[in-house]
Amino acid sequence: MGYNNGIIRWTKIATVLFIAMAVVADVFGIVITKYIAYCWADVDVTDVTRVAIMAVIFYLGTVGGYVVLFALLKLLSNMSKDKVFDRANTNLMLIITLALVAIAIDCAVGGFIWNGAWILTIVALFMGLIVMSVRVVFDKAITMKEEMDLTI
Q: Taking CA atoms, which of 19, 64, 80, 151 is between 20 and 30 Å from 103?
């Protein structure tokens, strides 16, 4: 029996929309960074160094975001092919987790300039924990499936 491809299709569409939003954010990254620096982080207008550091942190974070989104898109593609409990999927989940940890580290560095980045750090780590937990469940299911295949 196949899985509900409607849900997977809509999730793929949402993922592509998030990729498009990330591209738009990258295009306007300097404007976004300046807004955060001057309005939220209370950086002095003459402090170009802190704004530049925030821009670098912003763009490094979006790189991690692209890694997460494209790995998720590949994971969803595998699932739409009924390839669910597979080592390739657990590897994709590991990539997603590592990217989320990298994003958390990136945001933690940004936390020294803007306090709001600490919240993003916590959110990224929490999401990484969830993905890693699901990965462990998938790994266990794959191991159980392989053991059952050997006994038959």
A: 80
C-alpha span between 1 and 16 (Å, rounded): 27
What CA–CA distance (Å, rounded) separates 50 from 46? Answer: 10
pLDDT at position 4: 65
pTM value > 0.85: yes
Q: Kindly report the CA angle at 90 between 89 and 95, in degrees rounded to 5?
A: 95
In terms of Cβ atoms closer than 10 Å to its own Cβ (0-12, 13-18, 19+), residue 63 is middle
Domain that holds residue 107: 5-151
The count of residues in the chain is 152
Domain count, the chain: 1
Parts of the chain with a pLDDT under 70 = 1-4, 152
Give Cα separations from 84 to 26, 71, 93 (angstroms).
Answer: 32, 14, 12
DSSP per position, 65-130: HHHHHHHHHHHHHHHHTT--S-HHHHHHHHHHHHHHHHHHHHHHHHTTT-THHHHHHHHHHHHHHH
